[in-house]
Amino acid sequence: MTTTGPIDEQQLRIVPANEASWDDLTAIFSADYAARCLCQRFTIRGWIWRDSTEEERTAMLQSQTGCGNPDARATSGLVAYVDEEPAGWVAVQPRTAYPKLRTSRIPWSGRAEDKDDDGVWAVTCMVVRKDYRGRGLTYPLARAAADFARERGARALEAYPMITEPGREITWGELHVGPRQAFSDAGFTQISHPTARRVVVRIDF
Questions:
Q1: Considering only CA atoms, which of 130, 142, 24 is closest in space to residue 84?
Q2: How far apart are CA 14 and CA 20, in angstroms?
Q3: Do residues 130 and 163 touch, judged by C-beta distance below 8 A?
Q4: Which regions of the chain are under pLDDT 50?
Q5: Strand partners, 15
Q6: Distance from C-alpha of 99 to C-alpha of 133, rounded to nearest angstrom
Q7: CB 157 within 8 A of CB 120
């Protein structure tokens, strides 16, 4: 049973996705844009809707996360539980795991950097289950992503969030990259502003 209001830390548990069940992850991805994209926008080299099927994207996510396999050597993100109910997801991996980032102008606008640097990780997606939205869950997800990347040996972590404004609604499909303030709160610094509503933020460890 869900409630409203900010989520207390005592209610929250965030684990690597391979320590969560596949059923829990699919519950988080059960509605809206997330149910179609399945966090594959940056992993498919071509156009996601033309060059992949929903079945293929589902299989990719299942393989990437290793859900249900606590001994997996790697996973592609973290799962958040609120009162032990699956509530949120954040994708965090080496930047090189996302082929589409290589051709996107957003990460590279105004800077020259080695695109093959495995030491730089990236947050590309946040999903909050519908009943838990508006309760600040992206903030602990951003902090947990930074901790996870650092613990796994990342030299730096970057993200590509949206600028949100009070009273201005942004569809969840657009906000899948997360809100800028959640990353600022987690210690990320803005390094570029490639579009009117999108920034690149980074934290160096």
A1: 24
A2: 10
A3: no
A4: 1-2
A5: 79
A6: 29
A7: yes
**Which homologous superfamily does the CATH classification assign to the domain defined by 11-204?**
Gcn5-related N-acetyltransferase (GNAT) (3.40.630.30)
**Cβ burial 145-163 (10 Å sphere, 16+ → b, else e):** bbebbeeeebebbbbbbbb
Domain parsing of the chain, residue ranges = 11-204
Specify the pLDDT at position 96. Answer: 96
Distance, in Å, from the CA atom of 64 to the CA atom of 73, rounded to the nearest integer, reads 11
Nearest in space to 192 (alpha carbons), one of 106, 96, 103: 106
Q: Which of 172, 152, 154 is nearest to 162 (CA)?
A: 172
Distance CA 60, CA 122 (A): 18
Question: What is the structure's pLDDT at 106?
Answer: 87
The Cα–Cα gap between 154 and 74 comes to 13
- The residue type of 26 is T
Nearest to 195 by CA among 133, 135, 109, 125: 109
Q: What's residue 109's pLDDT?
A: 83
- Whole-number pLDDT of residue 113: 87
Bridge partners, residue 157, by sequence:
121, 203
Question: Does the global pTM surpass 0.90?
Answer: yes
